[in-house]
Amino acid sequence: MGPAMTTKTDDSTLRAVTQRVVDNFTAQGALFTALDVSNAVKTTLPDVRHRQISPVVRDLFERHAMGDYQHSLIDVLADAKTPTQAYLYHLPEHSPALYDDTMRNQLAIPPVSTSTSKNDDASISSHSVEAPVNVGRDGRARVARQLLMNAGIVGDAVYAYVDTEHGKVVLAEATDDGDEDALANTIEYEHPSLLHVPRALIASAFSQGDKLVARVFSGRVEIVRH
Predict the structure, then answer these.
(1) What is the pLDDT of residues 162-183, one digit of tens each?
(2) pTM for the full model?
(3) Strand partners, 220
(4) Range 121-160 burial, b when 16+ CB lie within 10 A, else e
(5) pLDDT of residue 185
(6) Cβ atoms within 10 A of the Cβ of 44, count?
(7) d(CA 96, CA 85)
(8) What is the maximal distance between C-alpha atoms in the chain?
(9) Pairing of strands 186-188, 168-173
(10) What are the tens digits of pLDDT across the range 66-93?
């Protein structure tokens, strides 16, 4: 884990830390506000302010970096005393009414890395050819960027599709040839070291609770049942 920074935080570091915090929350299927994200980010970057973090959270939502998450306006107390409204981020199947003090207490996470590019999983190296795939409660699969690089997929976007005949999800280099199907199934990185594979793709290839593994081939990574 990266140490807390005492100097002025640059935008790339702030975004990387915020991306990791949001990934933690969405992997838990948690209900959270931008203030919840801010509180978690500040455990790593105590020098930053909520007004710096809030726009990053909003941008991540608008870029669909939270997957299938929706947002709903709820009543909150600013500074624990002033009534106002804030967006609550939640999965479609979760009612905003579930967000209470008990839920807030579940949102505490330890400090995260401040690296803008570091591989978060120390067990995966430049020689790895296989690794377990974590599927969060949000239904998205998380694949280490290092594995994709090991397959020769080095761009900032990845083409993903379901091979229904063989029951697997295939990740390959995104192309820029204007093909509408390829564009519709192109995933951009929204985390310093993980690719989020959408819930719809995972659900169409696997059953809930399946243990998954990512395997490296030349030019592609395949997500299959373990």
Answers:
(1) 999 999 999 999 877 666 565 5
(2) 0.90
(3) 172, 217
(4) beebeeebeebebebbebbbbbbbbbbbebbebeeebbbb
(5) 86
(6) 26
(7) 13
(8) 58
(9) unpaired
(10) 999 999 999 887 776 788 899 999 999 9
**Residue type at 146?**
Q
**Residue 213 to residues 46, 129, 206, 223, Cα–Cα distance (Å):** 37, 10, 12, 6
Q: What is the pLDDT of residues 202-212, one digit of tens each?
A: 999 999 999 99
The answer to whether the beta carbons of residues 216 and 147 sit under 8 Å apart is yes
Report the C-alpha gap between 2 and 120 in whole angstroms. Answer: 11
> What digits encode the pLDDT tens for the residues 108-123?
889 999 999 888 888 9
Calpha distance 211→226 (Å, rounded):
6
The two three-digit tokens of residue 70, written as one number: 């929706």
Please say whether the beta carbons of 163 and 170 come within 8 A.
Answer: yes
